[in-house]
Amino acid sequence: MDSPVSASRSDAREGYAAVGDGTLFYRDIGGGRPTMVLHGGPDFDHRYLLPELDQLSDVLRLIYYDQRGRGWSAPDVEPEAVTMASEIEDLDGLRAHFGLERSGSWGIRGVGSSRWNTRSNSWTVERRLAGGT
Predict the structure, then answer these.
(1) Which has the closest alpha carbon to 30: 110, 123, 104, 128?
(2) Degrees, nearest 5: CA angle 42-98-72
(3) How is the chain split into domains, by residue range?
(4) At what angle do helices 84-97 and 111-119 cross, to 10 degrees?
(5) Residue 29 CB coordination number (10 Å)
(6) CA-CA-CA-CA torsion for 101, 104, 110, 113, nearest 10 degrees?
């Protein structure tokens, strides 16, 4: 699969991470505190957050990814295979892929982000939620 061009910033690193039984597209940009960026859905991918959210890359390391079954992480994924448990496992797998012991998360509406943060006891996270309760 060809790598997509997500945005015009040339300092973004893009690739694919083998996570569990799938492969997830990611976009890694910036420095500072690592922050996992969770897009909304169910039918969105990370691109609608660009380029505006990239402005935070001056102070944060933003790790965007297309969630399983969406965007560039969509090939051969049956909708039934996408569950809250698989979403949390994917976040844990990405954390391991990037070698992160500490991270924040930023998510639209924050349901998956909140469950991941409350479930994860192996490392410390902080979250910032946008829109919704």
Answers:
(1) 104
(2) 35
(3) 13-130
(4) 70
(5) 22
(6) 0
Fold observed for domain 13-130: Rossmann fold (3.40.50)
DSSP state of 66: P
Query: Strand 33-38 and strand 102-108: pairing?
Result: parallel
Q: What are the distances in angstroms from CA 30 to CA 4, 57, 58, 62, 82?
A: 19, 4, 6, 6, 29
Q: 23-37, 66-80, 112-126 — which one is most confidently predicted on average?
A: 23-37
Spatial separation of the C-alpha atoms in residues 109 and 127, rounded to whole Å? 11
Nearest C-alpha neighbor of 39 from the set 8, 12, 73: 73
Token pair 């991270």 is found at 103
Angle CA 109–41–85, to nearest 5: 80
**pLDDT at site 4:** 56
d(CA 123, CA 117): 9
For 49, half-sphere exposure in the C-beta direction (CA atoms, 13 angstrom radius) is 25
Residue among 86, 92, 77 nearest 17 (CA): 92
Token output for 86: 């698989």
| Candidate ranges 23-27, 70-74, 103-107; pick with highest mean pLDDT | 23-27
